[in-house]
């Protein structure tokens, strides 16, 4: 069987052709992030480095928590990095320029100094920032529509954009707090932004992510859904920024609202994950005749713990090559089930569907053969099919 590029197949791109546009876009985003940090460093004092460290500190944990929602069908690492870099770079730098111009030439001249700042924060900033953050999601919808398989994907990409934006924004807030009020004020701001409400920007942008995901996986309302999601993001953001004008009661209401939104998003991801499991149970049995999947293998594919156990078993009997083959097999099988969902909803071009299905089946076969060619280190069969049948049982 011809050598395949598993990563290219899973990402849906041409093998042997690296995603130049994605790599170049990430580089541009990171350059913009450096420029934004340079501006902070130029106008900030000693608090810049304190703010930078505190802003970065919770990001690994927050990213890890976000990616736990994406374990059944993980998104490409490059696309996730690009989304984060867009939020931290282009969105932040663009918001810095546009918010400043709007404040200087629109809201303050019209409403006066005090009220102009309130109007800018409550109305101007949400429109500008959510538009800039949402632009990358609209770009994914336009250029990489087939990468978005459901609401969970839209939420994941939106959360990565929001985390990048929040990290860079927090640098400014922490820097100002330290320079203006010292350690006490910095502590208060860090507790509020870094510990109490670290997911505010990801929550706002997730509304856009939901709209984009709907448009990518449904035939109707493809124009209306993303716009509605963007408006929802602006509304949540505006309520958050304007809550301080209503005192502690306003803050309590907004915190409660955002908490409810977070719970709803988690429920959406959980429900969709169960739906993906049902797709696996529904569509993969039709490929039993290929020898690539058995009922026992489908049982292994249904749950994260059994998939993890299968990877451990593969590594035990065949080392790293077999473990990598098992990962490729699991991801290709999941993508195959999701491909059928697209076809069922009428959003998969027939020729693309046929080519994509063939590529995924070839990857499953290649992964299985690579595993079977590995001399077994242990004689026992797969833990999910100790007596067979399984496509991963070694021959005599």
Automatic annotation (TrEMBL):
| InterPro entries membership | PrsW
UniProtKB keywords: Hydrolase, Membrane, Metalloprotease, Protease, Transmembrane, Transmembrane helix
- Superkingdom, natural source: Bacteria
Is Nuclease set as a keyword in this record? no
Q: Which residues cross the membrane?
A: 20-39, 45-67, 79-106, 155-175, 195-216, 223-240, 246-271
Keyword Protease listed? The answer is yes
What protein is this chain from? Answer: PrsW family intramembrane metalloprotease
The Gene Ontology terms for molecular function here are: metallopeptidase activity
From the UniProt entry, list the residue stretches annotated as the region Disordered.
Answer: 372-396
